[in-house]
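Example protein as discussed:

>
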Amino acid sequence: MSVSELPFAPVPGVRLATAAAGIRYQGRDDLLVLELSDGGSCAGVFTRNAFCAAPVTLARQHLGQGAPRYLLINAGNANAGTGKRGLEAARASCDALASLVGCASERILPFSTGVIGEHLPVERLARALPGLLDRLDAAAWPDAARAIMTTDRVPKLRTRHFMVAGRQATITGIAKGAGMICPNMATMLAFIATDVAIAPALLQRSLQAAADLSFNSITVDGDTSTNDACVLAATGALGNTPLADADNPDAVAFRAALEALCSELATAIVRDAEGATKLVTVEVRGARDHAEARGVAYTVAHSPLVKTALFASDPNWGRILAAVGRAGLVDLDIERVGIHLGDVLIVEGGGRAASYEEGLGAAVMAKPEIQIRIELGRGAAKAQVLTCDFSYDYVRINAEYRS
């Protein structure tokens, strides 16, 4: 499916445009401007990496100063690890756009993705802006999804509809990410918009909750990017009374649509992971609390030995058992631990299940989608993490990334 054929719905109050600025790539769009109508609200979640990129620092500052009118995103250059010069470049980018659209620079949120440690060529970005602004279009979501890609193989664009105040509301979002994915807030980059009017406090709480259930429950390689950011804008173009009460049925409907959209985008990221051939769900049950369950799930999902066995379709269940055992659980009773590959019980009573046969495990491991289910037998809490396998191509892609 080409980018122009991606199913989506425009969001009233949002216009987008892309351009080929030549920031790193040649012959493709690598710059995106997303325009938001005045009077809406906006929320964001950002990376917790201590070496956060200059645009992340500035976007967080600008978001705290009021609702933005424009998002400015470039691909190919992360503007991270660039010190004071990088922050100056991010500011200069916002200033360049602000001078053209006639708004304060603080009403622009900058975002970057790409190679770390290289200085952003602001002059190329600035040269591309005038022509880009002439092409702002509510229907340009597919082009936007393509423009923010780096090592992604496919664009990621989703839409959901739901009812608010008796009218059909829309939520549409794009995301990019295929490597350096172990979010500690959201994903590498995601931009979501709805036409519903929502109070800023509720919008922020809703986004954080949705990110925790989706983007914060995936991993490709255990690396948290310096540039992770997810922004959610509510334009209010639907004309409803702004939602402020989380228990309002319309607010519940909005949150359900947001969580479903974020889950779809997060799953698309893992499916598109660098070199990945399999989508893997690691589900942990019977933990003492949610944090314990997540810790075990991530230990298994991060294990290079587990991930390479998944690629080889090798039911080397000892690698899963070992990962559970080193997850740091205090007083783990291994006699109560059960591990399944799909519907096949592989571990019980402290060792290999009596009913397990290698052929059954191999059949599960050969599938393109695999579930690893772990029962700890020490409580009622559970958690789920999406991950993928490690293939030869993962090493090749990352070895050649700067070539």
Summary: Residues 145 and 155 are 5 Å apart (CA to CA).
